[in-house]
Amino acid sequence: MNETVEKIITSSIKIFNLDGITKASISSIAKAAGISKGTLYYYFPAKEDLVNECFNYVKSNALDYTTSNIDFTQTPEQIIKHLVRSSFQWPMERPGELEYLDLYIHMHFYDKNVFELFPFGILENDLFKEKFLEYKREKMPNEVINHLIGVVITTLSKYLILYPDYFQNEAFVESAAEMVWSMVSGK
Description:
By secondary structure, the chain is mainly alpha-helical. The protein has 2 domains: 1-45, Homeodomain-like (Arc Repressor Mutant, subunit A), CATH 1.10.10; 54-185. The protein contains 10 helices and no strands. α5 (76-93) packs parallel to α8 and α5 packs across α10 (170-185). The longest helix is centred in the N-terminal third of the chain and has 21 residues, at 47-67.
């Protein structure tokens, strides 16, 4: 991604969070990015394109953050718990991105694949799949597991904004990781 596009996207996320996605103007985004409206339209011909690219940017950052340092030699339980922990750490370090995600989910541009945002792609990793098969419920396809994890992590991450003190508590985060593992493994 070139520097101008990244500046447009990061500025857009800030403006969308301040004004709301539908009320944010192209003029205010261009001004915040330090570019002309023409330059913004060159890269993003429609506001919907910009909104969706901001989502892709947040999704990429979240996936990079939550899936970094995964050791696929660990058990599925350890991997899922790592993903849950890192899913709580990501919004603490990048709260504006979580706020944007919340806005995006609740608007008409909403991409139905939003639940792929967090660590769900990890279930497609061959090493993880092989290990997870022994834990997986017989009638629960990966898509259902992906959505269940997504709903839980997204909901808990939203609470992180409202009640950040809970997420500073290691026991709370461990409880959440245990809950997600129990839900996914059926144990």
